[in-house]
């Protein structure tokens, strides 16, 4: 396994094509806007080196028997699934941001079982290829950007019906030695901090959409790949000289990018689906389930930090014992632990696939993510309520440091007797960062749209909810004689 330092140096060796605000970034590793997100991802390497965290952060590869980073692991039992969620909560607590490595882990497990099923039915060799690829990833301890979401264009049209066929990533040429692809993947978490991109189709496909049913892996700096770094609220604060307090979280962050594939060649050994459209929906469903499970860990860890910051704000405001403050903190904890319970529950109810790796309970995973689309917003609202209006009207750090203005800021921003004004400002800026600033991308908006927007989970809940089975339970208890019904409801 790589150390934190080795990981950072490995990124320096890549020839990435990255653009931000209209300019090419020659050194993404040290760019002030990008570096905090790199620090968050580096924490996945750092904690794996600590004895106290190794149970959660590492696992034994079922392929090689070697100890590997859990982010490169194929789940072998329900304990693996639960340890994944616990690991994600830990990393959320340590970074208060998105640590960007979950999507690749979830893609590994979805593609692993799907390629196995494809080979069994179709006689292909995709699973064999993928296993060989995964062994390389585990051996080198790589960060892999799992990429599913396409730009999608007109959502009312299928991929093949789009006026611009490139709005879904597609195969434009099949060669004897590989394929050529064109298109883009949007909202790609941690793409600039990744060694590889692992591509999946974005939705279930029909025969007309076969060119869009494609899965493959490719190096992040392969010819034809260009990344446009996404904007975040308050992101240019990181570019201010000496910025610290106003950042809220000066060390850690997350990022997303638009990743463009301009006629990129993929060799056969890295192709895991090529026009097998019937399996596109299977891969999507399994990946979505794993990733919806993930949110029961990572968002909960960030929630732990936000709850702590809200409690500190109450201390600095001088109202920690007020009954309504206590009640709001209790509600925040209740909501946060409910999210965690869903993540653990769908893991504990996991079952083995035909390939041998474990899949979470899909119904509970979708319930988990449905709650994630709601509860973090309420936790954030309560944190803002407790923090007070000063969180969004507070003078700048430069004013605090100014010879003339500093004494005035310290005089009029004094909170509870005996507390430090600068510490109060730091806590309020942290709450701002998580609820409104750069971290809000990962805590609020990603909670809504990541791993599928709310309606996607509701569709899966309906599909997995077994309404007919529940009707039968009611019939048996009520002693319903179905032969007396001329036309049973729902038929």
From TrEMBL:
Residues 3-273 form the HpaB/PvcC/4-BUDH N-terminal domain. Residues 281-478 form the HpaB/PvcC/4-BUDH C-terminal domain. SUPFAM superfamilies: Acyl-CoA dehydrogenase C-terminal domain-like, Acyl-CoA dehydrogenase NM domain-like. FAD binds at residue 189. It comes from the Bacteria. Keywords: FAD, Flavoprotein, Oxidoreductase. Gene3D superfamilies: 4-hydroxybutyryl-coa dehydratase, domain 1 (1.10.3140.10), Butyryl-CoA Dehydrogenase, subunit A, domain 2 (2.40.110.10), Butyryl-CoA Dehydrogenase, subunit A, domain 3 (1.20.140.10). One of its GO terms (molecular function) is oxidoreductase activity, acting on the CH-CH group of donors. Pfam families: HpaB (PF03241), HpaB_N (PF11794). PANTHER family: 4-HYDROXYPHENYLACETATE 3-MONOOXYGENASE-RELATED (PTHR36117:SF3). This is 4-hydroxybutyryl-CoA dehydratase. It comes from Porphyromonas gingivicanis.
